[in-house]
Structure formats: structure tokens, C-alpha cells
Amino acid sequence: MIFSIMVSEGPYTHQASDSAYQFTKAALDAGHEIFRIFFYHDGVNNGTRMTTPPQDDRNIVDRWSELAKAHDLDMVVCVAAAQRRGIVDVDEAKRHGKDGDNIAEGFRISGLGQLIEAGVKSDRLMQFGD
Amino acid sequence: MIFSIMVSEGPYTHQASDSAYQFTKAALDAGHEIFRIFFYHDGVNNGTRMTTPPQDDRNIVDRWSELAKAHDLDMVVCVAAAQRRGIVDVDEAKRHGKDGDNIAEGFRISGLGQLIEAGVKSDRLMQFGD
Amino acid sequence: MSTVKKFMYVNRHAPYGSIYALEGLEVVLIGAAFDQDCCMAFIDDGVFQLVKGQDSSASGMKNFSPTYRALGDYEVTRLYVEKESLMERGLTKSDLMELTYEDEDDDWAEKPSIQIVERSELGRLMEEQDVLLNF
Amino acid sequence: MSTVKKFMYVNRHAPYGSIYALEGLEVVLIGAAFDQDCCMAFIDDGVFQLVKGQDSSASGMKNFSPTYRALGDYEVTRLYVEKESLMERGLTKSDLMELTYEDEDDDWAEKPSIQIVERSELGRLMEEQDVLLNF
Amino acid sequence: MLHTVNKSPFDKNSLKTCLSHSLKDSDILLIEDGVYGAIKDSAMSGDIEKALTDRKIYVLESDIKARGIDSSRLVQGVAIVDYGGFVELAASNDRVQSWL
Amino acid sequence: MLHTVNKSPFDKNSLKTCLSHSLKDSDILLIEDGVYGAIKDSAMSGDIEKALTDRKIYVLESDIKARGIDSSRLVQGVAIVDYGGFVELAASNDRVQSWL
After folding, report:
1. Distance CA E5, CA D125 (A)
2. Superfamily for F2-99?
3. Which of B29, C20, C100, F73 has the greatest number of CB atoms lying within 10 Å of its CB?
4. Nearest residue of D to residue A129, measured between CA atoms
């Protein structure tokens, strides 16, 4: 079965990102396919490489990057939501005259159409948010 | 009268940052002193210079920076909350091996003691959050 | 993408206090370009999104309520508003914006987009969907 | 800073679902170094923070409940837990961690930090504070 | 004492908790989505009317306007203040509690 | 149809809304702070017991453990699943609704 995952809240503040991660791992373990993970609303904040969580806590951003690498996952950060919240890749930084970028490994910035496409092409679109 | 302001949510997602801004302006207009504005929880996300909100909307980060400049306000971003969420200044970037910083003009990163001190030294500590 | 799926956008947040309503609306507008079968449900505080006379100028926030009027042009023509949610909040249909669409199957007659439905009916409508997105 | 003010940390969020409880606790620990007169109130879902037997290992999140045991050493010795909030949630005092402090005015006798108080009493306690911080 | 409530009472328990903890003569200011609590003929309006017998309840003007709530739709006795009034309420009360 | 609820019913209306919209034979999975809704002898337990007469209610194991809720404290009839079970529920139902 083909799943897509929507993450609507940022790391640490709400459990949504943890739940989405655990669900994704369990779906992969059960042999299902993950078509896409889409980060919307404050969920875009999962995609910054600038976090340094306490050493005795999980590293939510790195965890996503590693899972994506291990399973070749498509992790998309919504461009409009990212602009409001300050998540930028090299192209976005150029376009808006920012002096740097902060996107983490394995994430890419794209449009909302990617969320709709995930709904169309997946058997189930799972939503994790606040 | 001396006020301090605590902002607990990020820009755009919740109205807390708008309410805190409007209250701060009104307090200044009424001749009160603002001892400090302290950004905690997701509130630290008010302090990134990487946002590019839609052109027909307010620019929440710039608005804070401009108010701070006009009134010489002390805007403090909590270091522990900022580390979890990826808000870094030059020093923090060096300390944690990050390849850039993203803090906006007028904000500084410091410890939670600054919040307690604001509670002690102000007549009122106003909290805006979710 | 030749598949046509039934999308329901479930709105349960009031506008302004949080961004879910505004960013949800952005999804609906983009989604309309995908030629899917889509509708919107307004439940709980979501009904507040459709209240007429919104004026956010003094608050400094962006008034996005005019965007709901554009939904008809995007062929989003079914807005289910829950009757019980309105009543609990002291609202009636007359408090809501008048939203319409032009029905191409009926000589482009202008028709109301908002349908007031009972809670039990909404539960049944949900069971007819393929994808439910919540804002 | 010679002023001594009365701080009350009002906890109304459950742990884990959101970070407010954990980051609130960090404020309390830092605040304890400032020699202010401070106490904590646990109201509504805040009472869930003190439930014993928390084990977050399978969830991947950090179990921060042991930190509450350290509060006594930081001289945070008054934890007001609302009786009605416990009852509504099917909890009793015996579901909570046993938190204690050593009373320096009573030959370092070990005493319970948790006080179960009624809602009306909490309202009065709030009126005695200088600063109320909510988490 | 000033209590502020910024949540819709139809969504969250903040207003109910505020009403059950505030003492008589308290000032209660509804802001953001909290202003929905002051609409008359709603499932909450009875609680508001009761609280008005011994407490003052205010709503923030810019927040009711943003939400399209005309003053005629408020429970009778609820007062409207602007941000200047909010600052005055915070200054004139000895302490502030934000029910988030 | 699978319904998920991730909010405490003592704080937010999500569980009540879920219960009033879900049809009979629905699966309802409580996750995150939503698991508090399944504690017995609470102000919500009557609603859960009633729903259990024609719907199935599950709680996520890692979320009850994190919160210190022993299985003996759950309303009788509530089933416990792990993340693998969550995935199975999502796959075996035709659609999913997340009551946030």
C-alpha cells in the first residue's frame, strides 16, 4: 500500500513530528511504500539544519534526514509556508536576497501541488498536527 | 510603569506575536517603559531574518526589529529554546559548528535568567502565547 | 493524473487566532487546479471563517475573508456548514457571507455555495470521501 | 536584585503532547537561583505532569518526569495540585509521584511537596502572587 | 486582578477555567479567539452573564472587528476596549494572569 | 473509516467532535494526548463507554506508557495497539480522518 505523510507542526513543540516519524518507520517496516512526506504550517521548521537539541534528547531533524537517506524518501517543505517562517534553500535565498540558507539534508522546497499530488497518488494520506 | 513582555509563539502561526506587538506599541504610546521582550518556546522563531512573507501581509520580524530600533528595546531570544528550533547568532553558530547564522536585527540570544529578571524588575510581565 | 478522487477539506479553526484557516484555504485553491472532486466542511470553530463583515485593519493582520468569494470561480462549489456548530456559537445562516457559483450545467445560473447540513449528515458525507485534509 | 517577589508557575498542559511542561520546568529551575518566593500550580491537564510511572522510551521522547524530584533540592517546595482537576481526569493523589523536600526550619525533616487544594483555594492563592507565568 | 483569555471557549477550556478561578471584582479581558466567548445567545453566553454579576468582562475592539462581530451581538454588559484600554487594565490591576 | 484523535478531551473538543461525527463500526484511535480520553472513571469515560457499544476504540501503546497510564486504568473494552497496529488500522480502513 502507498502512504503519504503530512506533518503540520515543528519539531519538539508538538508531538506531531514524533508521531509522523514513528508512523513512517512502522509503515516502512511493514513493507509499505512512502510516496512523500509533506511539511506544512509550522511543520516546515522540521527542515532546518540549524538546531542543536540537548544531548540527552532525540535530534528530530537529523532523524528525518537519516530516514530519508536510508529509504530514499521524498521530503517536501511547502514553499509558501517556508517563506513565512524563514526556511530557505540556496535558490530561495537567491530569489529573496537572503545571505544564507538553512535547509537540512534530504529536504527540498516545493509548492502545495505536491501535497495534492500526494493525496491523489497515495492510498492513504496521513496527517499529523496540532 | 515598567512592563515586560513574553512572546511564546512564532510569527504568523498564532496571533500571539501580533497581540504582543500591538500591546507593546500601546504601552509605549501611553508613556510606559518596556524593560524587556522575551521570546520563549516557538516565540524564538520571531527572531529569524530569513522570512519573506507575502507582499500583501505584515512583516512580523521586520516590525519587531523596527520597533526595537525606534525605542531602544531589549529583545531577548532564549538560548535553550533557540537551540531546539534552529535560531542562531554568530557566537552560537561558532559554538555548535553551524555554517551560518539567522538571527534578525535587534534580537540577542541569552539565558532564561533574563525572563526571571524581567519578572523581578518589571511591574507587570505580560504573557502572549498559545 | 487521470484518477479523480474525492477530497474534503475539513475546517475546524477560527480565522486570525491561528493561521490554519488561511493556509488551509491556500491548499484548497491550489487543489482546485488538479481537477479532483472537492468540497469543504466547516465544523466547530471553522464556521467562524465564513462570518461576514470581517475587518482586520485595526489588528494589523491580513483580512483573507474575500478569498472565500473566489472559491466559486475555482469550481469549489460545495461548502458544508454544520448547523449545530452555528447554533452553539449563537450564529445563523444570515451571519455568513453570501457565497455563490455559476452552474455551468444550468445555463450558468448563480447558485449558493453554502449548504447548512446537520451533524449526522456530515458524518455520512465524510464516509464518501477518499482524502480528508484538516485545517 | 534585593526585591523578593512571589512567582507562581501555572501548569495547565499535559506532558509530551507539547513542550510547554518541559520548557516550563526549565524556567522554574533557573528561577530557583534568583531567591524569589516561588510555587507551582497544576491545573487542568497540568496534573498529568505529575503522574508516576512515566516511561517514554518506546515513543522516542525524553522522559523528563524525574526532574520534578529535583525541585525540592532547588527549594521549590510548594506544588499545588487542583483536586477537581484530578477528579475530572479519573486520578487520585496516589497516582502522583511522591515529591518531597527537606525542611531546613524543622531539622531537615523530609516533607511532601505536593498539596492537594480545591479550586476556590487556588483562585485565592493566585491573588497573593506578584508574577504568574503560564506553561 | 486582570485575567486574559485568548482561546475560543467552544474549542478549549481556557475561559471555563478562568471563570472558575477568578474571584469577584476581577477584570476579565477576552482577546484573539477568546472574543468569541462574548457572543450572545451561544452555548457560553449563560456562563458570561453569570460572571458579569460580580466581575467585569471586556473584549478587545480590534479582535472583534477582525472577526466580524458587531458590538450589538455581544452579551449585554460586556465592555469594549482598544489596546490603550488593555494597557490601562494591565496597569490598574495589581497582577495579570494569562489563561492560554 | 479510521478516526484519530491526538488531543486531550479535557482541554479541547476534538474527541467530542470525533464521537459525534463517527458512524457505527468506525475505528477510533487515540494517540498523543488523546490517550487521556480512555482513562476510566473520568469525566469523559461515560462517552467512551457509550461509543464502545458500536465502535472500536484503540490507544497507542507508546503514548500511554509515556504518560504513565497502566492498561488497568483504561475503560474496559479499549484496545491497545503499537505503531505497527496503527499502520494496519490505516491500511485496513478505506479512509482516515485526523481530528486535530
Report:
1. 19
2. DsrEFH-like (3.40.1260.10)
3. C20
4. D17
| pTM of the shown model | 0.98
Closest Cα partner for B83 from B44, B118, B114? Answer: B44
Q: Do D18 and A56 touch (CB under 8 A)?
A: no
Could you report how far apart the first and last alpha carbons of chain C are, in Å?
25
Structural domains of chain B ordered from first start? 2-128 (3.40.1260.10)
Q: How far apart are the first and last CA of chain A?
A: 26
Contacting residues of E for F7, CB less than 8 Å apart: none
- Partners of D14 on chain A (C-beta within 8 Å) are none
pLDDT at E68 over 70: yes
| Ranges of chain A whose pLDDT falls below 50 | none
Q: Does an interface of 3+ CB pairs under 8 Å exist between A and B?
A: yes
Please say if the pLDDT value at position B65 is more than 70. Answer: yes
The angle formed by the CA atoms of residues F11, F17 and F18, to the nearest 5 degrees, is 105
Record: contact E98-D44, CB cut-off 8 A: no
pLDDT one-digit tens code per residue, F22-40: 999 999 999 999 999 999 9
User: Within a 10 A sphere around the Cβ of D74, how many other Cβ atoms?
Assistant: 16
pLDDT surpasses 90 at D23: yes
pLDDT score, position C3: 78
Instruction: For residue range B72-122, list pLDDT tens digits in order.
Output: 999 999 999 999 999 999 999 999 999 999 999 999 999 999 999 999 999
Neighbours of A70 (CB within 10 A): 11
Closest chain C residue to the Cα of F2, Cα to Cα: C127
Spell out which residues of chain A touch residue C34, defining contact as CB-CB under 8 Å.
113, 116-117, 120
Average of per-residue pLDDT across D57-85: 97
Give me the domains of chain C, ranges plus CATH numbers: 6-134 (3.40.1260.10)
Instruction: Choose the catalytic residue: A60, A61, A78, A125.
Output: A78
Please answer yes or no on whether E100 and D12 come within 8 Å at the CB atom: yes
